[in-house]
Write a structure and sequence with these properties.
Shape: globular
CATH class: Alpha Beta
Radius of gyration: 18 Å
Number of domains: 1
Number of helices: 8
Bound molecules: aspartic acid
Structural class: alpha+beta
Strand content: 25-35%
Largest sheet: 9 strands, mixed
Number of strands: 13
Helix content: 25-40%
Oligomer: single chain
CATH topology: Glutamine Phosphoribosylpyrophosphate, subunit 1, domain 1
């Protein structure tokens, strides 16, 4: 059986390559998702995920994360969780239950503490400095356009599919604000009989179109992975422009159950893909008349977006 992995943003390059190594060795896709995402959660240079994530309006780093098993359709998710190293690890652990799969705030923290998950203060000096500077600049704080979610979708050699996501959400978000990332169907979805998809961008927009599930419905209706992903994003973008005059940034990655990928975006969006038949490659997707132009990026350092 073949294997494949796709992940969002250039920041996932190392994690994706690590996940690809695990999948090549025949390990479970769940392991590949967790290890790949943890590589990003642990890196303080990435300001939108885990350690070094940018804080909310009160200066607190509140994290969201989710995991889904495409065989059983079980998912686990945490929202607005503070003080722990790895939202994806906690979310994965919650996916084994039949109830209480999605925990928020104090409840998520209590579960993580009781189950021995590693604690960590995720606010670094650098992120605190960015927060203080921004706070000093504006009289009234409003969510700032500095956000990205690390998302992984994988197919393992057993034919099982998984997705995982982790994010600190919007910089300067209201206390308690939760975006699409931990919301099943919007931020992520996996069904091993069909495919796996996950999203990054402005959660308030992504949730209006239940984007990840919708992309998989397109796949079920017979579209190719690329058509399924770009149609989901472009239809939602068009709808939002018609209703509200604009559509904020949204991007979606998708794998079908044979490991083929599709990507949709309404911005310039880097992603990484690796499979049995292709080594880790960084691509840039660019929105073009409702379609998506996808080009491999040879020189990673030349790309100005993380
Ligand atoms: N979707 C995330 C949120 O709204 C942020 C992002 O992916 O850019 O919290």
């Amino acid at each position: 059986m073949t294997w494949a992995v796709i992940s969002t943003w250039k920041m996932s390059w190392k994690g994706c390559t690590l996940a690809a190594d695990l999948l090549r060795q025949g390990l479970r896709g769940s392991e590949a998702v967790i290890r790949g995402i943890q590589d990003v959660e642990d890196n303080p240079e990435f300001r939108s995920v885990g350690y070094g994530g940018l804080p909310d309006e009160e200066g607190r780093v509140l994290l969201d994360g989710a995991f889904m098993n495409g065989d059983s359709l079980h998912f686990g998710a945490v929202a607005a969780m503070e003080g722990f190293r790895s939202p994806i690890a906690v979310a994965h652990s919650l996916a084994k239950y039949d109830f209480n799969n999605f925990l928020a705030g104090k409840g998520a923290e209590k579960y993580a503490a009781e189950n021995g998950f590693e604690r960590r203060n995720n606010l670094t000096e650098e992120s605190r400095a960015i927060y203080e500077k921004k706070r000093g600049e504006s009289q009234s704080l409003s969510a700032y356009d500095g956000h990205d979610t690390v998302c992984f979708a994988v197919l393992d050699q057993m034919g099982s599919m998984y997705t995982g996501v982790s994010t600190s959400g919007l910089f300067l978000k209201k206390c308690g604000r939760v975006g699409d990332s931990p919301v099943a169907g919007s931020g992520f979805y996996a069904d091993s009989r069909l495919g796996a998809a996950c999203a990054t961008g402005v959660g308030e927009e992504i949730m209006k179109g239940v984007l990840s599930y919708n992309a998989l419905r397109n796949l079920k209706a017979g579209m190719s992975p690329q058509e399924a992903a770009e149609t989901a994003v472009s239809e939602l973008s068009e709808t939002l422009i018609q209703r509200n005059g604009k559509a904020r940034s949204m991007s979606l990655i998708l794998l079908d159950n044979r490991g083929n990928f599709g990507v949709g975006t309404n911005i310039r969006f880097p992603f990484v893909y690796a499979a049995e038949t292709s080594s880790s490659t960084l691509y840039l997707a660019e929105a073009e008349n409702g379609r998506c132009r996808i080009t491999p990026v040879e020189d990673k350092d030349s790309l100005d977006i993380d």
